[in-house]
Amino acid sequence: MAEFTMELNDEQKEVRDWLHGFAADVIRPAAAEWDEREETPWPVIQEAAKVGIYSLDFYAQQYFDPTGLGIPMAMEELFWGDAGIALSIVGTGLAAVGVLANGTEEQIGTWIPQMYGDANDVKVAAFCSSEPDAGSDVASMRTRAVYDEAKDEWVLNGTKTWATNGGIANVHVVVAVVDPELGSKGHASFIVPPGTPGLSQGQKFKKHGIRASHTAEVILDNVRVPGSCLLGGKEKLDERLARAREKARQGGERVKNAAMATFEASRPAVGAMAVGTARAAYEVALDYATTREQFGRPIVDNQGVAFQLADMRTSIDAARLLVWRASWMAINGKPFTAAEGSMSKLFASETAKKVTAQAIQILGGNGYTREYPVERMHRDAAIYTIFEGTSEIQRLVIARTLAGVPIR
Ligand SMILES: Cc1cc2nc3c(=O)[nH]c(=O)nc-3n(C[C@H](O)[C@H](O)[C@H](O)COP(=O)(O)OP(=O)(O)OC[C@H]3O[C@@H](n4cnc5c(N)ncnc54)[C@H](O)[C@@H]3O)c2cc1C
């Protein structure tokens, strides 16, 4: 286990500065344009691929940083640049993690390279779990996967929604029901390869924020995929379903399941994105407050403004510490006995919403216009309390964990 320290090591500082440079020189200058266009910023993703930021190798390196800080540090810097563009760069990672977590070595080797493409021909991937009637309540998912034994194929039918990169992805990872009797334990994940007939994009959403990130419905109409596209394989699925049926017969599982532990480990990354956006808005506000003069002095000379900045910075630092703690716990295999991952996501996302609103207030009329970036940052920040589990769901998870009752 790495020794505890509050300081980044030299290697981490080097990576952080390199990412910050990319965020400042490439992402931030493009932010307003892609927000207005509401389109995937392919040229920026391509730039990221050229320098090695858009690749599985990069994320794997950060993930295996023994302190656990590699991923949160990377997320904070990229999202400091711009949340919409950064999500376009890291969104493929959601699908890649789905394959890494559940796939066989062969599936990982086959599909992950096709998710990213290469610097000359970048591709993106989508992770499709949410449905119109299954958001927070994942167990009520309806998309069905039925096995056609004669052809060794799975047939997928249903409608997915809110899929980041949905419909424009080269590879879609789709979660579907294989045994409706088992609730969320009867779900399995499937690869839908490029060009598979029956998969189409539904509505593309026009959003409040993170508008450079593509979000859409994905329609699955008799989509047939080979048996080899079931992540983990049929044998493992059959064993898992048999265990779940046996537990259901014994009166249900009373312990926190493995999926919950996975969420606890991944939520700090979303918290880190929120810290990046909050820090960006705070920096703009601090700079403005020290240069804008009213009543013959910089507005920061008024306690009403200065104290807001003090609170903003304090909350951001507290959020980062919660994120770092949870990330350190995850890499060191510490049990999340107080749902520390959810805590970090809850506090950081609420902080981003509040701090970006305070930044608008400090910039006055300018803050309310698109001439300055804080109104965009405020629109972007609203996503953090919604996706990857809403703030209410984080509170529910924390409270039930503390009370020692099952999450569901
Ligand atoms: C921009 C964007 C990108 C996304 N990307 C993806 C993606 O790539 N893949 C994917 O699968 N999904 C994605 N999502 C979906 C996202 O995870 C869901 O929107 C989220 O889980 C909430 O589900 P919902 O929108 O159906 O809200 P609902 O679950 O309907 O919730 C509505 C409100 O009710 C509250 N609520 C619900 N249940 C409870 C409860 N038990 N107690 C208290 N309050 C409750 C919620 O907190 C919320 O305030 C994305 C969403 C957005 C907006």
From TrEMBL:
Instruction: Please name the source species.
Output: Streptomyces dubilierae
What cofactors does the UniProt entry give for this protein? Answer: FAD
Protein family membership: Belongs to the acyl-CoA dehydrogenase family.
InterPro entries, A to Z: Acyl-CoA_DH_CS (IPR006089), Acyl-CoA_Oxase/DH_mid-dom (IPR006091), Acyl-CoA_Oxase/DH_mid-dom_sf (IPR046373), AcylCo_DH-like_C (IPR036250), AcylCo_DH/oxidase_C (IPR009075), AcylCoA_DH/ox_N (IPR013786), AcylCoA_DH/ox_N_sf (IPR037069), AcylCoA_DH/oxidase_NM_dom_sf (IPR009100)
Pfam families, alphabetized: Acyl-CoA_dh_1 (PF00441), Acyl-CoA_dh_M (PF02770), Acyl-CoA_dh_N (PF02771)
The Acyl-CoA oxidase/dehydrogenase middle domain, residue ranges? 126-223
The record places domain Acyl-CoA dehydrogenase/oxidase C-terminal at 258-402
Residue ranges constituting the Acyl-CoA dehydrogenase/oxidase N-terminal domain according to the UniProt record: 9-115
Which key words tag this protein in UniProt? Answer: FAD, Flavoprotein, Oxidoreductase
Protein's name in the database? Acyl-CoA dehydrogenase family protein
